[in-house]
Amino acid sequence: MGSTALVPSPAGEIVTGPVRSVRDIIPADLWDKQVGLLMRDYPYDSVMATRVLGQGYAYLLTAMAKRGQQLGLAPSKLVDVGVHTIILDTVAYAELCEKFNDGQFLHHVPKVEFKEDGSVMKTAHLVAAEGWEVDLHLWQDAADCGPCHPGSDSH
Predict the structure, then answer these.
(1) Please, which domain of life does this record's source organism belong to (predicted)?
(2) Across residues 76-100, what is the average pLDDT?
(3) Measured between alpha carbons, how far is 65 from 102 in angstroms, rounded to an integer?
(4) Quick one: which of 83, 85, 73 has its CA closest to 124?
């Protein structure tokens, strides 16, 4: 805590505010395990694995906070790697949903086609507006398209 998010919005203004860290809510042993899984399964060092995992959690927690609003949230390709690592650890993911999604499971419904509607950068701005730190470089690999179904009870 104590740092500030500075993310340009689609309209050009800067979104600022205190930054929440996912490390404050994810147990250290689970965090270390999932960083290790990313390093095992991808060509990431611990720094990159930590960045990807943090953005995956920030995205999922934002999707949970915005559930039912039909905002069409979408992660970038890199952020989606973190999301997959989190949701594949099904026991821990179910606990995350229980705690942060009113006990409802937040489904992941990927689509084959990418939607090229700017939803990825819009999502990064919503993540920042929720107070999570945004690692903007990890969102720019798919800035104009997203792979997820824009349903109200899924991401």
Answers:
(1) Bacteria
(2) 96
(3) 10
(4) 73
The residue that leads in pLDDT, 39 or 117, is 39
- Cβ–Cβ < 8 Å for 75, 42: no
* Domain-located, residue 67: yes
Distance, in Å, from the CA atom of 110 to the CA atom of 149, rounded to the nearest integer, reads 6
Domain containing 96 equals 4-148
- Residues of the chain with pLDDT > 70, as a percent, come to 79
CA 37/CA 86 separation, integer angstroms: 10
Host H or E run for residue 5:
strand 4-8
pTM of the predicted protein model: 0.83
∠23-25-26 over CA atoms, to 5°? 65
The Cα–Cα gap between 41 and 125 comes to 29
Q: Is residue 113 part of a domain?
A: yes
Whether residue 97 is predicted with pLDDT greater than 90 in this model: the reply is yes
pLDDT at residue 153, as a whole number: 56
Report the C-alpha gap between 55 and 79 in whole angstroms. 6
Q: Note whether residue 155 is domain-resident.
A: no
Q: How far apart are CA 52 and CA 36, in angstroms?
A: 12
CA 80, CA 91: separation in Å to the nearest integer? 19
